[in-house]
Amino acid sequence: MQEVNFDEALDKILAQDDRFARDAYLFIREALDFTQKVIGKENHGKVRHVTGTELLDGLRRYALDQYGPMTITVFEEWGVRQAKDFGEIVFNMVEIGLLAKTEKDSREDFQNGYDFSDAFRKPFWPEARLQAEAKTVMPS
């Protein structure tokens, strides 16, 4: 298989689908590297394929680490507004040869991901707000 030049491949993707900014694709690549390192540590250095669910978790963790409470603002600037958008970006990259997939991987892996507010805002809420929400969710 011929090696694909990342920047040229991104140019092709963006010419066909301009819903998401170039930075969103760069972020996915960095977050995938982050996720693979985390999984590698958990598996004693063994590298393996990352599932959609694992990638979603890695994207969340990496985004919080990189952008903190500004994560949703950054994502909105890139055109990313929900977890399924990550799937669209990933599969745009798969279709052009930047990423590989197995027969079990699909866009649907990202459809029922996390709520952005829960994933990216709640970690920064003050304890009092978290407790107040917990009380409204769990009636006494």
Descriptive notes:
With 140 residues, the chain is an all-alpha fold. The protein has one domain (6-137). The chain is built from seven helices and no strands. It has helices at 6-16, 22-42, 52-67, 71-78, 83-96, 116-121, 127-137. The longest helix has 21 residues, at 22-42. The N and C termini lie far apart (60 Å). The mean pLDDT is 91.
Brief rundown of the structure:
The protein is built from seven helices and no strands. It has helices at residues 6-16, 22-42, 52-67, 71-78, 83-96, 116-121, 127-137.
Q: What is the average of the pLDDT values?
A: 91
The helix content is 55-70%
Largest sheet: none
Oligomer: single chain
Structural class: mainly alpha
Unreliable stretches covering 5 or more consecutive residues: none
Number of domains: 1
The span between the termini is: 60 Å
SSE arrangement, N to C: HHHHHHH
- Beta-sheet strand percentage? under 5%
**What's the number of extended β-strand segments?**
0
Tell me, briefly, the overall form: globular
Radius of gyration: 17 Å
DSSP helical segment count: 7
Blueprint (SSEs and pairs):
Elements: H1 6-16, H2 22-42, H3 52-67, H4 71-78, H5 83-96, H6 116-121, H7 127-137
Helix pairs in contact: 2-3
Task: For the structure shown, list the relevant keywords.
single chain; 140 residues; mainly alpha
